[in-house]
Amino acid sequence: MSSDSSRRPDLSAALSSLQVPEYRMLWWAGVFSFMSVQGQFVLRGLLAWDLTESEGALGLVYLVFGLTMLVTTPFGGVVADRFAKRSVLLWSQGLIFAAAAMMSLVVLTDVVTFWMLLMASMAQGLAFAFYGPARVAMAAELVGREQLGNAITLSLLSMNGTRVFAPALAGFLAGIAFVGIGGAYVLSAVMSFVSLVQIWRLPHRPAADATPRNPLTEIRAGVSYVNSDRRLRRIVVSSFFVIMFGFNYVAFIPALVEGIFDLGDTYVGLVSSAGAIGAVAVSLPLAAKADGPGGQRIMVISGLGFGIGVILLGLAPTIWLSFLVVIGIGGCTTAFQSLSNTLALSTSADDMQGRVQSLMQLSFAGFGIAAAPIGALAEAIGLRPTLVIMGAITAGTTAIFSVLERRDTSSADGVQVAGSSAVPLLK
Known about the structure:
The chain has 16 helices and no strands. It has helices spanning 2-14, 21-52, 55-82, 85-108, 114-143, 148-174, 180-200, 215-228, 230-246, 253-260, 265-289, 295-315, 319-346, 353-381, 383-418, 423-426. It starts with a helix and ends with a helix.
């Protein structure tokens, strides 16, 4: 009985944000949206490989996604800060639905071409540019700063929980003759539509400040704000490089499974889902601790584990060992994302949170942009050594972040000990 009572407070703390009805509605909208998106993620890779059988083509699909996000995400942050977040979510989720519906139509009618796939990838990149900052900023608005880390972690749980089965389901359906990739896209479109309905049910809250301003000026203000804070700048830059190089392993799972292990679409979905198993496993313990002390330490450990995991993936001799490695990568990725976002947003002003989140989200634009040259590198030297290089860069970036943070902390302590006259210089 004592063990049960000791567990209940932890579970209550882990799920605290879901006790807010409006956030709970937003969370369920995210569940259905990510079910659609995760399925489309796998289907794009499968379709690109089926159409071209080229790692470079796989990289190009994600390059288009990344470039679109790179150009439009800063505007997404401005829009999230200046307009009603429900409206932003409706329009962006509507675009995700339209992309899935279009792909299902062209695949089922057998008129699909590679450029259509690139258009769908571009549409999803545009949608993410506005959806991500608005969703995180709305979550912060609904739960308050005291539960920000918990809300961000649970939002990642809604994404990673769907990754447990959505990619595997997409791969499984794609491998069934009478369903195929077209039928899997239909299911993805249905899930996206359900999310759209859930967002529609959210209460409308007018923007706190809808004063018309030059968006480029607003973007520059956001960049200047981040650049003026050394710690915030370091978090954003480190996150960019970790995600850009580390997370790119997912783009090459079809090439790893089908090209190296000579297995089919079902196994692609299975390995793609493995990361979500690790992500879900760490989500609830992480949610309970995300707003407490020690967050930065956990972030560094998870970033190092992320990089080491990608290295091991490049060395894994069997599909099942690869599956286990990806489980570990998934747990580390979730912890790093959640805590880096929490650290960044917890130190940001309310009217800057959308733009700060948009800069954090640029890491996924970097992921897409890097996919093409990484794909070219994989074709030149092989996929396995390329994965090792990606993991080494990821772990190295995290190590540099940790060293610089320790140096600044030591310097700050030294200044404070030296006397009050030095404090203004520190500031």
